[in-house]
Specification:
By secondary structure, the protein is an alpha+beta fold. Helices cover about 40% and strands about 20% of the residues. The chain has a 4-stranded antiparallel β-sheet with strand order 3-4-5-6. Strands 1-2 form a two-stranded antiparallel sheet. The longest helix is centred in the first third of the chain and has 27 residues.
Amino acid sequence: MFCKNCGTPVPDGVKFCPQCGTPAGGNAGRTAAGGKTVQKSRTSGRPPVMAIAVCVIFIVAVIALVIFLFRLIFGNGYEKPIKALAQGMEEQDGEKVLSAFSEKTIRYLEDGYQMDTRDVERYYNDYIYIMTDENLEDEDYTIEYEIESSKKLSRDDIKDIRDELKDNYDIREDISEAREVDVVFTVFVDDIEEDQIDVEMDVLKIEGDWYISFLTTDDLPSL
């Protein structure tokens, strides 16, 4: 064996070079081809701190995006019919107002009052006038809504709603979820608050979509 520092022969079992004192274990490095000593990097195998920080930030951002999208799509889905109702009233769009209710509810309105869908839609074009008792014709008005509270209903509550719809209105709905919601609709005329309507309603998840329950529209206009 030869010393890796000076090349002096080192007998087996000797721990230090007799010429220069370099440890025979090769602490000076490992010899590569051509007799050159290659030092092993102290940072070898350790990822850079900056790379770790970037990875952490990226992971946190992805998690935050997933949570946001989940809440947007699933968490507050019960707001969809409430938003449709507010927009339908603002735009005097009876079709959009009716989109807040289930197909079976609309069919009940048609059958119960001997009206076709277009007749029902035309009636609900004036939903805002009936709801506020205000004459807003030719007025520049907007409608905003705010959900004051929202409570998830129990299975027993859902069963009661389902039974009442069936027994009193012959409406059979497959309800998987339900929430009791307190909504405040605010009407602005020329950007000035004109009226506020506080409505408590149940919203029902039926076959994957949310609708306003026909049972809790007593405070809203009816045919």
